[in-house]
Amino acid sequence: HLHFSDSDLHSSELHFAPGAGCLDLSGIVSALQDIRFRGTCMLDLWLYPFPVEGSRTGVPYLRRVMDELQIA
Q1: 27: which of 2, 5, 13, 67 is 20 to 30 A away, CA to CA?
Q2: Which string of b and e fits 16-38 if b means at least 16 CB within 10 Å?
Q3: What mean pLDDT, rounded, does the chain reach?
Q4: pTM: predicted TM-score of the whole model, two decimal places
């Protein structure tokens, strides 16, 4: 099970919306493709201060990632 979020690389407990941090998310998705990840996943916004905005941008992003990973 994948908890998908971004990070500022400083705050261990703050989970950013995808694109709001500085992780190489395309590299992470590529690595998941390489291992043929087909598990479940969720958008993880733990302690993110703007959860509505994070969901508004994060859900479509995660749907695209799921399509790339061929997860129904």
Answers
A1: 13
A2: bbbebbebebeeebeebeeeeee
A3: 95
A4: 0.88
